[in-house]
Design goal:
By secondary structure, this protein is of the alpha+beta class. The protein has 24 helices and 13 strands. Strands 1, 2, 3, 4, 5, 6, 7 and 8 form an eight-stranded mixed sheet that branches. α10 crosses α11 (about 335-345), α13 packs parallel to α15 (about 415-430) and α18 packs antiparallel against α19 (about 485-500). The protein starts with 5 loop residues before the first strand and ends with a helix.
């Protein structure tokens, strides 16, 4: 059925980039990358003001707002943001938008809008100065009493293909724009959370080694982009800087990135040395650096190993930095992406309050962006943790909701293996072990360098009763990413796997390792059970008492009802250890 044609009153905004054709003529890739980065920065002003982007055409944008005041304020904020961003760039790389705003009746049809209101907004845009805003008389009459920024009357103008002259006013951007430019000179890229991976430099005498250096960079970009919580600048944007001796802070500003990874490759005969360093471009400080010396017996094996190692080390460092940055921010001032990151940080608190707070933050993020796939998956993960650890009563409806959230995330972004991984986790705890094993096996096969997939594979093996294989997979994954902030979860599950193998000293060691990071409830439980099996002692009693501080009304039997392991004998052994440690039966 064709979409219904509607007429309605709306504020219409048209924007384009002054001199865009000239910029494309001199640097197509760089100009396109810069435009995308600027759009990522200013689009939230549109959405937060209740506007929608109807369409984009090259450098042009057509937007609709239900509120005239909201439209003008959003465009003012956008131009001030662009002034701040342009202040960090050379003259020939600065990008200036021209904006026109009109209000009137529009015709909405099949996702597009038409009518004289749209045409007038387009003509007003042509009259705007680069970096400026032109508005119609109708818009001026609606906003001038509430708008602090001065307006200049340009009189009634004959606009091309418009029957009647239109009163035109220009928003005086001088003061506001100058203030933004001055602030930009001293403002760091504090709000940029993306990671830019620059092409690794080939330091070898042989130019043929470029392919190896490029391959390292490309693989890092591909693998980093699969890390939940990270935004990674695309290859075609960062590779435009290949061979250029450009300050990383300038590159970060142009690409709208906060973090920059750069490195070099030096090869001599069968030996290769690869260096890499992660820089916080807001202050120029090094967050992480490493050097790798390898023999090039198998070029692809070396490339995979180094790529996996670098990503496993830098991803946790970036996330920790982002979590710290958002600690003092109010959720009401955050974008959907920032709310998602804040909810991800809550996951690592590993307690009931953290899971509940994370669940609420995910709901807030989804109110701002209902198509945020990662937020849907994380929402399900928080709900999953609340059920698994006994903080919320589980039933079929609750489990179905979690599976639905995982499936929704996969539909929104079917190419992200993390969402398939979360679905595998829900299958594990739903008792569908064979389906979980098959899915996790495929994930490890398709994404061998993605640590999360290895962890999920280990968890599927453990809960399906294949404990020896589970411990082997946990060990590999923990070696791949020794500094990941969520390792406490997998150290705890490794403890469970060793416990089921009746290797109680190893279970105790892994539980203690997890508890060094966070007071994870499940780690408290397996520690108490391991101590109980090693012999009733005061230490076992203290461990049981600490566990009961988290679950004050539970018993060993009630606690074990939450576990959906394939082998009932494993659950019985765990229950037995808890009772021996001192939990009520």
């Amino acid at each position: 059925m064709a979409a219904e044609t509607l007429r309605r009153l709306a504020a219409v905004v048209v924007a384009d980039v002054a001199g865009y054709s000239r910029m494309m003529g001199s640097d197509e890739d760089g100009t396109l990358a810069a435009l995308k980065a600027h759009r990522n920065a200013i689009d939230p002003f549109v959405f937060n003001a209740g506007g929608q982007i109807i369409k984009t055409t090259g450098d042009g944008m057509l937007m609709e707002f239900s509120s005239v005041m909201a439209a003008v304020e959003a465009m003012l904020a956008s131009q001030q943001e662009m002034a701040r961003r342009n202040a960090t760039l050379p003259d020939d790389r600065r990008m200036h938008f021209r904006i026109g705003v009109h209000v009137g009746e529009i015709i909405a049809d099949d996702g597009d809008i038409f009518g004289d209101t749209v045409n007038i907004a387009a003509r007003l845009q042509e009259m705007a100065e680069p970096g400026g805003i032109s508005i119609s008389q109708a818009v001026r009459d609606s906003v001038h009493r509430r708008l602090a920024t001065p307006l200049m009357d340009l009189g009634r103008q004959d606009l091309k293909n418009i029957a009647e002259p239109v009163g035109v006013w220009r928003v005086n951007m001088g003061g506001a724009q100058s203030e933004a430019l001055r602030a930009a000179a001293t403002t760091t890229a504090g709000e940029r959370s993306a990671v830019a991976v620059l092409p690794f430099d080939n330091m070898s005498a042989d130019p043929e080694q470029d392919y190896f250096a490029d391959g390292i960079s490309e693989d890092i970009i591909a693998l980093l982009s699969r890390t939940p919580g990270l935004r990674v600048i695309a290859r075609n944007s960062t590779f435009s800087y290949k061979g250029q001796a450009t300050d990383v802070r300038l590159i970060a500003a142009e690409l709208d990135a906060r973090y920059v990874l750069e490195g070099s490759v030096r090869r001599s005969g069968k030996q290769v040395r690869i260096t890499a360093q992660l820089i916080d471009a807001s202050n120029g400080q090094h967050i992480w650096a490493e050097r790798y010396d390898r023999k090039m017996d198998d070029i692809f094996e070396v490339q995979d190993e180094i790529t996996g190692n670098i990503v496993a080390r830098i991803a946790p460092e970036v996330l920790r930095s982002e979590f710290r940055r958002l600690e003092e921010r109010s959720p009401d001032q955050m974008s959907a992406w920032e709310l998602y990151l804040r909810a991800l940080a809550c996951m690592h608190e590993a307690n009931e309050a953290g899971f509940l707070r994370g669940e609420a933050l995910c709901h807030q993020a989804l109110e701002l962006d209902p198509n945020h796939a990662a937020a849907w998956a994380l929402l399900g993960d928080h709900q999953y943790q609340l059920l698994v650890y006994g903080f919320r009563k589980g039933n079929a409806r609750a489990w179905n909701t979690i599976v639905e959230n995982a499936e929704r995330a996969m539909r929104l972004d079917p190419g992200d293996p993390n969402f398939a991984g979360f679905l595998a986790s829900t299958l594990i705890w739903s008792g569908k072990w064979d389906d979980a094993l098959a899915l996790s096996d495929r994930l490890v096969r398709d994404y061998p360098l993605l640590v999360k997939c290895r962890h999920i594979r280990a968890s599927a093996l453990f809960q399906a009763g294949e404990h020896r294989a589970a411990t082997e997979n946990y060990d590999v994954a923990l070696r791949m990413s020794p500094n990941a902030s969520d390792n406490y979860q997998y150290q705890t599950l490794n403890a469970f796997a060793h416990y089921c193998l009746e290797n109680y000293p190893a279970a105790l060691c892994w539980a203690d390792e997890a508890l060094r990071a966070v007071a994870f409830p499940q780690a408290l439980g397996i520690r108490a059970a391991a101590l109980g099996q090693l012999g009733p002692t005061d230490e076992a009693s203290r461990a049981a008492a600490r566990f009961l501080e988290v679950f004050p009304d539970t018993t060993a039997t009630r606690h074990c009802r939450n576990f959906r392991w394939r082998n009932q004998s494993d659950i019985d052994r765990y229950r037995d250890g808890l009772i021996k440690a001192g939990l009520p039966e």
